[in-house]
């Protein structure tokens, strides 16, 4: 099974395209997401071909694994056949042929109620702690977690660290990704949903990729994993014995990750 984060791992917004090394040649791009009539996310033409090859093959199950809500995920039109399974809302929803599995979602809800303070308490704290000088908007995702859209250059350096300490004591984690500050319950993980897909499909080996702190549990749970040379994990110098830290950044990293997936799938068809 191949479980991969999407944003800033395989697909890139116009802003994130600047992550590519400055001396790299301008890549030819394919738009994979349109929102309100405007192009929003891209892959390179090379990555599109690699994605199609990965999805068309019989050797692996490709599972997009994202923090996006179901609605946000379904806006993305990845090259190749539509994946049978997808993980959305950081593991809060397991989609089967585009539809959420209600039993999985109910089990996740029960665990959050048991182990974490309610979302409403976190929302209230975020509203009180955020400064209008740098806060653009405050949102929730599928009533599972919250995030802020901020002016990154105005965000005080210690604010996220202080929020992380507050959240840790209440069963939540904090992650800064681009212009978004996420507050996510600790039990809400991509890895748990991916393990469920592996159980259902009989996959004996899992390959994974991701760039953010919210991907760390997924990378650790995989047999083999990769992270790009940009993102929250790269900035922290994070790695693990089964995780390869790639030097490539931006869309070049997306291409490299897809090549690594295809190479590894070819070596072991049980993935």
Strand order of the largest sheet: 5-1-13-14-15
Report the CATH C-level class of the largest domain. Answer: Alpha Beta
Number of domains: 2
Q: What global shape is seen?
A: globular
Write down the secondary-structure element order.
Answer: EEEEHEHEEEHHEEHEEHEHEHEH
H/I helix tally: 9
Estimated structural class: alpha/beta
Give a verbal description of the structure.
The protein has 271 residues and is α/β, with parallel strands linked by helices. 34% of the residues lie in helices and 25% in strands. The protein has a five-stranded parallel β-sheet with strand order 5-1-13-14-15. Strand 7 and strand 8 form a beta hairpin. Helix 1 runs parallel beside helix 9. The longest helix has 18 residues, at 250-267. The model has no long low-confidence stretch (mean pLDDT 93).
List keywords for this structure.
271 residues, alpha/beta, Rossmann fold, Hypothetical Protein Ta0175, Chain: A, domain 2, 4-stranded antiparallel beta sheet, 15 strands, 25% strand
């Amino acid at each position: 099974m191949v479980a991969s984060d999407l944003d800033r791992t395989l697909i890139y917004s116009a802003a994130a395209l600047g992550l590519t090394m400055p001396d790299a040649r301008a890549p030819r791009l394919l738009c994979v997401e349109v929102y309100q009539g405007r192009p929003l996310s891209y892959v390179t033409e090379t990555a599109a071909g690699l994605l199609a090859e990965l999805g068309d093959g019989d050797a692996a199950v490709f599972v997009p694994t994202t923090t996006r809500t179901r609605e946000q995920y379904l806006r993305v039109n990845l090259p190749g056949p539509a994946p049978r399974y997808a993980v959305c809302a950081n593991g809060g929803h397991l989609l089967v042929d585009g539809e959420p599995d209600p039993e999985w979602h109910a089990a996740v809800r029960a665990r959050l109620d048991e182990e974490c303070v309610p979302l409403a308490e976190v929302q209230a704290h975020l509203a009180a702690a955020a400064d209008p000088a740098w806060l653009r908007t405050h949102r929730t995702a599928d009533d599972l977690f919250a995030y802020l859209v901020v002016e990154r250059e105005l965000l005080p350096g210690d604010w996220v660290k202080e929020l992380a300490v507050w959240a840790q004591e209440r069963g939540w984690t904090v992650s800064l990704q681009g212009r978004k500050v996420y507050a996510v319950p600790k039990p809400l993980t991509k890895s748990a949903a991916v393990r469920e897909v592996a159980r259902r499909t009989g996959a004996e080996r899992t390959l994974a990729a991701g760039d953010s702190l919210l991907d760390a549990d997924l990378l650790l749970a995989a047999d083999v994993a990769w992270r790009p040379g940009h993102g929250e994990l790269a900035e922290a110098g994070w790695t693990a014995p089964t995780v390869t830290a790639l030097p490539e950044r931006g869309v070049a990293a997306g291409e490299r990750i897809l090549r690594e997936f295809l190479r590894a799938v070819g070596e072991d068809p049980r993935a």
